[in-house]
Structure formats: structure tokens, C-alpha cells
Amino acid sequence: MAENTKIQDWPGEWDKTTPERLAHLVDGYRYLEDLYQHGIEVSDVEKDFSTQDIFIGLKTAIEKKIWMIQAELGSAPEIDE
């Protein structure tokens, strides 16, 4: 599974600041947000609305996490741009 992900992995080091680590976390969440959006679109084409609802719920939860982390960083959430 790990070799197939597009989420960048960082070794456990103490040389990164908290804002750098949070920004990295946001990047990973944005990747997941894009995957969920793709799932929403595909499930719509396939008329699989139960699965689409699941993807919508997951995407909504990720967007909330992005919003909260971006707020901690003092940045706009930049969701749906």
C-alpha cells in the first residue's frame, strides 16, 4: 500500500518546524480530498449514490481538517479553488 501512495513520507526528524509539519499534513489531506472528489464523480457516472454519499462525507471531513489546520497556520482554507 505505501509504495502506491502519492503522499510524501518524511523521516522522523526534529529539524522541521510545526508550521512546516502542518503544511505537509495539509498537502496529504489535499491529495485525499482530490481522491474523494474523483470517487464522487465516478460514483455519479455509475449511478452508485450510496457510495457517492460515503465519498461526500469523507471529503467533507477532510475539508474540515484542512480548514482547521489552515486556521492554525493563519491561512485561508483554499478549499474548492
Quick summary:
This protein is an all-alpha fold and 81 residues long.
Describe the structure.
This protein has 81 residues and is mainly alpha-helical. The chain has one domain. The chain has helices at 18-45, 49-73. The radius of gyration is 15 Å and the shape is flat. The relative contact order is 0.13. The model has no long low-confidence stretch (mean pLDDT 88).
SSE order and pairing:
Blueprint: H1 18-45, H2 49-73
Helix pairs in contact: 1-2
EC number: 1.-.-.-, 1.16.3.1
Domain Ferritin/DPS: 8-75
Protein name: DNA-binding ferritin-like protein
The best one-word shape is: flat
Query: What is the makeup of the main sheet?
Result: none
Q: Provide a count of the helices.
A: 2
Unreliable residue runs: none
Q: How many separate domains? A: 1
Oligomeric status of the shown chains?
single chain
Structural class category: mainly alpha
Averaging pLDDT over every residue, what do you get? Answer: 88
Keywords: DNA-binding, Oxidoreductase
Protein name: DNA-binding ferritin-like protein
Enzyme class: oxidoreductase
Domain Ferritin/DPS: 8-75
Can you give keywords for this protein?
single chain; 81 residues; mainly alpha; 2 helices; 0% strand; EC 1.-.-.-
